[in-house]
Amino acid sequence: MEILKHCIRKLMYSIPLLFGVTLISFVLMVYFGPDKTYDLLGRNPTIEEINEIRHQLGYDQPFFVRYFEYIKEVLLFDFGYSDSTGEKVTSILAKTIPVSIALQLPGFILGNVLGILLALFAAMHRSTWLDKLIMSSSVVGMSISYLIVIITTQLIFCSSYGLNLFPVYGWEVNSLSDYLYYITVPTISSVFVALGYNTRFYRAVIVEETTRDHVRTAKAFGHSASTILFKHVLRNSLIPIVTRIVFSIPFVIVGGALLLESYFGIPGVGLTAYDAITTGDLPVLKAIIVLTTLMFILVVSLVDILYRVVDPRISLK
User: Fold this and answer.
1) Which residues on adjacent β-strands are paired with residue 81?
2) Which of 26, 58, 133, 172 sees the fewest Cβ atoms within 10 Å?
3) Residue 106 shares a structural domain with residue 219
């Protein structure tokens, strides 16, 4: 019951954020956005024809009338039909979001799990050559552009100049083997980029935790290094780790998918967003922006609950 009340309270606090984002997106993309009047008219339209089309599109309505119509679209999550394909926007998202999740999930999980393991290993051997090697490799991974990583992995694994083992483009998944065939190279690209950032962040958190008084006390009582590391250090490091993982979810699904799906030709929400930007498909862009906002609100509500799960001593306020 306490968790339910907390969720409701968090959602109530998120209402101003939702209104703020929708207001900005409305002003930039709708109110001052492209005028579609002349796209729907033939050559040399009359004033009456122009006014009639503008009335049908609602351009002659006052600002707040148009904004509340936009809010209605957001609340009902009904953004009409795509300007490019004529397909219903919700149908497009229903097809593309599962593809993006299926594409990003392996790399997201591996990037975080391997980052935590490497950070623990580096922290256990702090100031040794192993620690320096891991941290230097992390800097290299952070320094290379995501785009360069994608192109390089395509050349190595997907082209005749390299191993030519995996497809460079497309998405035809009908079985588990097909799925593994198509996600292997995108996953390698995602893990390579994420691993550097994750390892450095997690190592910093873990090393800071090793300087706490309770860790020194555990060492004084003769606990083994593995017990101290996993029971005392890692457990107390979970809150910043969980925060980083959870708050990266919206950006990974939408932002990270944008490059991957564009270069690998995978029909997910990232490629849909890219196509919508290049063609000026406002209904699809509006839906993706609102979807990202809703995901962020959900993450903010979820993270405090996860804090309570990893550390029951934390109270929900």
Assistant:
1) 88
2) 172
3) yes
Query: CA 253: distance to chain centroid?
Result: 3
Q: Residue 232 corresponds to which tokens in the numbers above? A: 């005392």
Is pLDDT at 316 greater than 60 in this prediction? no
Residue 284 amino acid letter: V
- Dump pLDDT digits (tens) for 77-119: 888 888 888 899 999 999 998 999 899 999 999 999 999 999 9
Q: DSSP alpha helices (H): ranges in 173-234?
A: 176-210, 213-220, 225-227
Shared domain check, 273 and 156: yes
CA–CA distance, 189 with 166 (Å, rounded to integer):
13
> In 3-state terms, what secondary structure has residue 310?
helix
Q: Which residues pair with 88 in a beta bridge?
A: 81
Query: What does the block give as tokens for 162?
Result: 């390299």
7 pLDDT tier (thresholds 50, 70, 90): low
Residue with tokens 């903010």: 300
Cα–Cα distance for residue pair 99/58, rounded to 1 Å: 35
Q: Which domain holds residue 66?
A: 1-76
Same domain membership, residue 187 and residue 69: no
- What span, in angstroms and rounded, lies between the C-alpha atoms of 311 and 264? 41
CA 47 to chain CA centroid, Å, is 46
Q: Is 0.85 surpassed by the pTM of this model?
A: no
DSSP letter at 249 equals H
Please check whether residue 260 is in contact with residue 189, taking contact to mean a CB–CB distance below 8 angstroms: yes
**Helical segments of 58-145, H only:** 63-76, 89-124, 129-143
Q: Domain tally for the chain? A: 2
- Residue 88 φ then ψ, to 5°: -60, 135
